[in-house]
Amino acid sequence: MAEDVVRMGVVGCADIAVRRMLPVMAGTDAVDLVAVAARDADRAAAVAARFGCAAEAGYEALLERDDIDAVYVPLPPALHHAWTRRALEAGKHVLAEKPLCVDAVQTAELVELARRRDLALVENFMFLHHSQHRAVRDLVEQGEIGTLRTLSSSFGIPPLDPGSYRYDPELGGGALLDVGVYPLRAAQLYLPGELAVLGACLRLDPATGVDVAGSVLLCSPDGVTAQLDFGFEHAYRSDCALWGDRGLLRVPRAFTPPEHHRPLVRIEQQDRVTELSLPPDHQVRNAIEAFAAAARSGGRRAGTAAPILRQAVLVERVRDAARIVE
User: Fold this and answer.
1) 273 CB contacts (<8 Å, ≥6 apart)?
2) How much is the pLDDT for 1?
3) Which residues are catalytic?
């Protein structure tokens, strides 16, 4: 094994870990998947056998291993703060599923702890690592749509299993933290400066008390606006559009394109419509490799602290501004 391979452990056998992250961790040269942990020993053993690594019954046991450099935390959002903190205190780099925490105070605490210990702390927004977004930013900078005036973005999915943590407020459930954070992060990717929340609406499920849908209106310091929509009660939609004074650019699969999918970008201008078929890309692998590079640097080149904090503050401002309806 190469000396710079990051030895990974996984704190929890959540669906996203088993379905998307672990297959890539087990197959990439950037990390060595050492162990997975679950509260249930049989669950840990079954997942470990599937991916060819060790099993640990309990998260603490995994954090105590001295053959692990970094951990991935795919637990429900309300558990991220406690287990990320414990991992950092144990000297492990951390890749945590979004949102890193359920509020900005907890987020700032973890960012500061990682800074003091020279550890990489990364919030796992995988779409940021897909090359289609670099291509779109290049097109905008090249003037394909002129001066950007507004952005719109949506992420909606059909109703989930009623037993999912996403419907449990004690576990950090709700559409804002699960799917709404994607359009919010996209707005920060494409719009300049600190974004103000002009208005928001969150629709609550009276049976569970969690938000199941919402909309947000943002504005950048120079007047570029963003209209964002998200929820658990929708036909699937995962898109982003940038509207300028000379054209409109659409990204139909902004957040979850499969690795073999060739992203289509559509540019609508006054006298023509152009459709660009971009190369396929593996955003999961890219995200894991980017985290491994940050861990190898001791966190010093991670460049993630400011975006993590901005995202947490923006989510909190949306909550504060939101009109709540049932």
Assistant:
1) 266, 267
2) 46
3) 98
